[in-house]
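Please decode residue identities from the backbone states below.
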């Protein structure tokens, strides 16, 4: 793949979408990870106003440092970028205290997803007052392979410029654009847990393994075609894809028959 042409293609697409939607620019959550770093850089390359939001909720120092370094890098290279730092920790704690009382068993996954949805709310508030588009940062493996995102959280966006790119392809164009190496080499994490667990720990496979499995699935391969670790990874992909299918398809609509409309 020609990374230079690919970058120009995405930037042109972003510009066209903003123009056709009569919006003024882009807003994006920056986490210190490769996906948000690449996406925010692509937005900056449009020359349209771009706001990067840092929205920590008990974020690790390493993640915060990477996101701050990236935003500083953006500001040193592009004159159309603005940043805002909004610590959502106290807001999250208030939500948590209202949702979880003494008679309620705390569901850690539900609370983790609530963090993502709180960030989505924050992004859309600032998008509305600026007439900006909320830009998604999901890649193809996350969005269409394993469904590794929060419905109406980081999945709640207006546009997704890198959703047709594998994780490895996102890294490649990140290198092409000169993104900080500390971001390119960092272990991927969704930043929704206090223990900063990685994506690999949560999924049980690396992104390289998942990309391999997605390519094999395209060939209509089955679990029985593999042995050992390959079989395990292929099954992991199938399990996640099946259980998260509801995230990847349109909301089911109960269609009313014509004879009931009479």
């Amino acid at each position: 793949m020609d990374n230079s042409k690919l970058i120009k293609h995405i930037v042109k697409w972003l510009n066209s979408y903003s123009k056709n939607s009569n919006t003024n620019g882009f807003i994006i959550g920056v986490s210190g990870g490769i996906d948000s770093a690449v996406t925010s850089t692509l937005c900056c390359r449009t020359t349209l106003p771009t706001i990067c939001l840092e929205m920590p909720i008990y974020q690790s120092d390493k993640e915060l440092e990477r996101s701050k370094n990236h935003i500083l890098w953006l500001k040193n290279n592009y004159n159309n970028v603005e940043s805002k730092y909004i610590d959502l920790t106290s807001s999250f704690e208030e939500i948590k205290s209202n949702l979880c009382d003494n008679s309620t068993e705390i569901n850690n996954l539900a609370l983790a997803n609530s963090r993502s949805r709180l960030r989505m709310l924050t992004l859309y508030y600032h998008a509305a007052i600026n007439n900006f588009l909320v830009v998604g940062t999901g890649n193809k493996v996350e969005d269409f392979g394993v469904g590794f995102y929060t419905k109406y959280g980081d999945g709640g966006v207006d546009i997704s410029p890198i959703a047709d790119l594998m994780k490895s392809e996102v890294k490649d164009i990140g290198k092409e654009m000169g993104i900080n190496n500390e971001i390119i080499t960092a272990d991927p994490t969704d930043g929704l847990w206090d223990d900063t667990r990685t994506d690999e720990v949560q999924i049980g496979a690396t992104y390289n393994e998942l990309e391999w499995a997605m390519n094999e699935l395209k060939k209509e391969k089955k679990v029985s075609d593999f042995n050992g670790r390959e079989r395990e990874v292929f099954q992991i992909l199938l399990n996640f894809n099946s259980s998260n299918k509801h995230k990847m398809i349109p909301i089911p609509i109960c269609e009313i028959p014509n004879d009931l409309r009479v």
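Observation: The first strand starts at residue 25 and ends at 29.
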